[in-house]
Structure formats: structure tokens, C-alpha cells
Amino acid sequence: MPEIKIINGFPFINYAKETYDANEMLQKSQSFYEWMDTRRTVRNFSDKAVAKEVVENIIMTASTAPSGAHKQPWTFCVVSDPVIKKQIREAAEQEEYESYNNRMSEEWLHDLAPLQTDWHKPFLEIAPYLIIVFKRSYEFDEANKKHQNYYVTESCGIACGFLLAAIHNAGLAALTHTPSPMNFLTKLLNRPENEKPFLLIPIGYAAEECLVPDIQRKKIGELIVEY
Question: What's the whole-model pTM score?
Fold first, then answer.
């Protein structure tokens, strides 16, 4: 057990972070980048089963993300029930149909053309798991008094980044799906009023034939501005 020090009435422990020499640090940073660069967004999933414990470990990894005032303002709903997945697909496709046919601008549709997406979302039923991330804007204490959370959107965004990296690390595929609006998820999953849907992520194995768009990421000169 690490030694606990009390500072202004609050417990602190020493953070002993492992360090590397310059060459090892360079090698690790390069290999991690190259490995993460193999991650792709997938829309063609296999229905092959994934162990529940794997999904739980992935989510626990996401929960290690930093958050405003350490409020951890997130809930991860894991859906594997075929009936609920079907309901989510039907509701999502209804919203997506409206978006593709009535809400999206011509510019938006033009920008989506290289991805060849449309309102049909069969992956919501095929993928063995759906992870729906809800952001918690506030909490209630035991006396039912409301307490604010801080930097909720930023905190949930960071956690979802950790989540995607953990999914990739487990050898699984994922898709970040944001049917808009997503309020139907609150109703279908019977979530409390302090939670709002943030991101819907199908996860599972990629299908045996899984085609992804041949698109390129920005190069270093387009990403970094040095001062």
C-alpha cells in the first residue's frame, strides 16, 4: 500500500511513473502511433460473440480518463439483448432517414459521399454489443440536492477516446455513431433525467469481408504548428 499523505484534509499518494531512456521513449511513441494508425471505423461487423469480461475491461479502461473535478460524469450502457438492439436500430434509422432526406445540407451530403453511408444501419443489430455513452450533467446526493458536474462534454469525449483505443487494443472493431437527435436512447433505456446520450458505439469483430474507405489522415505538417 502506498503511503498516504494528508494535505489540507485530503489524502494524497505518491505517483511513481515508470520512465524510459530517450531511445526507448522514441521507439515506444513511434510503435504506438503506427499501431493506432491501423485503427479504422468499421460498418461491416461479424455477429461472432465477444466475452462480456472483455467489454467490461474495455469500459473500465475508458473510466480511467481524466474528468472535471474528478466527477467522472459518464454512464456506459451495454446492450446485447437482440430485442433492444432491434428497437435502437429502428429508432436510429428513422432519425437517420430524416437527416439524409430532409436535414442535411447538400455540402454535408457531398462530404459524406466518399464514405458511402446512408440511413440504413444494420450494424446496430449485427454487432454483438452496443455501448451507449451517456453524459451526466449533474448528480443528486442522498438528500436529493442537485450538484453540478464540470466540463462534462470534454470529459466524456476524452473517455470515449480511451474507449476506442481499448477496443482497438482488444482486437475488436468499432463505429462512432451519432444519430441526431438521440433522445430516443434515453427513453428506450429508461435513463434518468440527469443523463443525456453522448455517443453510440457498436463493437465486435470486423466481418470477414470488411471494406473501409481508402481515405488518408492528415500529415504531420498539417497537424502541428510550432512556436
Answer: 0.94
